[in-house]
Fold this protein.
Amino acid sequence: MSRTILQLEGLEMAFGQLRVLRGVDLEVDEGESIAIIGPSGSGKSTLLRCLNRLETPTGGGVIFEGQRIDARTDINQLRTRMGMVFQQFNLFPHMTALANVMEAPVHVRRIRREQAEAEARRLLEKVGMLEKADSYPRQLSGGQKQRVAIARCLAMQPRLLLLDEITSALDPELVGEVLDVVRDLARQGMTMLLVTHEMRFAREFADRVVFMDGGVVVEVGPPEEIFTRPKSERLRKFLTAVLEQTT
Amino acid sequence: MNDYLQLLQTYFPYVAKGATITLQLTIVALLGSVALGLLTTFAKLANLRLLRVVATIYIELIRATPALLQLFIIYFGLTSFGLRLDPFTAASITLSLVGGAYAAEIFRAGIEAVDTGQFEAARSLGMSTPLAMRRIILPQAAVIILPPFTNFVISMIKDTSLALTISVPEIMYRSYDASSQSYRSMAIYSMAAILYLAICLPLSGFAKALEKRKASR
């Protein structure tokens, strides 16, 4: 029996009049890999951003590791347990790959520099970027940048990873190397929420797939079910449209 | 020609001594501007509305009135309230106030030019806002700010000449003085021009080099 790590209760988010999330319910078990798919504008990215409070939800609740997140929650502390990887990498351009990975452990977790460096090198090796430890982001390809960004995130030892369209800004031939890293993490039992347009990857990698449309979760289920036996008309339409695009 | 050399001999040391005062005034005013500018920038970026309003009013008041007027208000105007400042102090305060408003705009533009994703990435790693500013945003903003800030320094050097009007013995004051004694305006003011050029041209070359380096990145 696995433990629930994250629970969303009717999560809502509105930007003025625009209601982007209209009550999202979802439970995530520890060690689960979840792919979130859906048309653009369906609220997928906003959902992730609400979870680590880059946006403040306008309604509903989030319970993370048994703790309800509200105005009294220490957001900085919360974010150290919930890592986020961005579409645009957002590596710190004035620091080497190694320094990028060491930055938060040294200045937020306040661990010793030597220890942080050893840990950072281990993580860079894990994502296959150890030989580029001393390179600056501008000297790296998109796929390499994203792998460093993942290592930077892991350095905080998060309990949950939020991956926001992490391959959307990459040239097609670089997507594979990043997804390999994600696949590895899933195998090692990292809990992950992955917003993606890579349907093939979602299908192969995810324990469950969440289909969002219009700010709500329309369907949740194992990939086989979602992709081969969609129940709702909206999902069927979406899958048809996506398949047409890729073939 | 001989006559020129004589004039140079008599007045150049006197005018050139003004360069020391000009530079002193520039340095004091720059320190004041940077301090005020940073304060104003952070006030403008603050969550508290009151701070933002105060910062905006300060910037707009300064930018919409001539610096000479501000200098006269500080030096002559304040005497109505019994506050009698010596000329150098009055000029330093005025130029700091003026510079602070312009520097604030340069700093803010620099900070805002840093991609918002940088701030989000820093925050998502658990950094507090001040830590993210210090470690991630400001180092990147500094690189962006350097060329416009160098230009700002140059205009500050030239603006110190306003202090002539309240008898601060800087370059302009001394050349005005020398020219009224000698009746050789062209010759004397040319000396002043050469002094300003000698100070400002290297700086402006430095700014150009910085901009070129940034463009080639």
Notes: The interface with chain A takes residues 115, 117-118, 120-128, 131, 135-136, 139-140, 143, 217 of chain B (CB under 8 Å). The mean pLDDT of chain B is 93. The two ends of chain B are 51 Å apart (CA to CA). The domain at 2-216 of chain B is CATH 1.10.3720.10 (MetI-like fold).
